[in-house]
Design a protein that fits this description.
Blueprint: H1 2-6, H2 41-44, H3 47-56, H4 60-63, H5 68-76
Amino acid sequence: MFYKIHYWLVSICIPLTSKFHLQSTRTENMFAYSIPSSSYDYHLQSFFPRTVRDWNTLRQEVVQLGTVKALQGAFLTV
């Protein structure tokens, strides 16, 4: 779902700030987002903070796949 949100395949406004590195870092891809800060566990474990943590650690090749099918295939071969 986050892939679809990132690539505007669904009409959902994300309440996040993108970092957009010029190149991927050791721990984050080029399309990483800032994780919203919170002192509440229920918020930190909600969809956006939890998914952004996962998204930011995906390999650059994975976040740049051209279709949702290709993305699904990448996870099925892991």
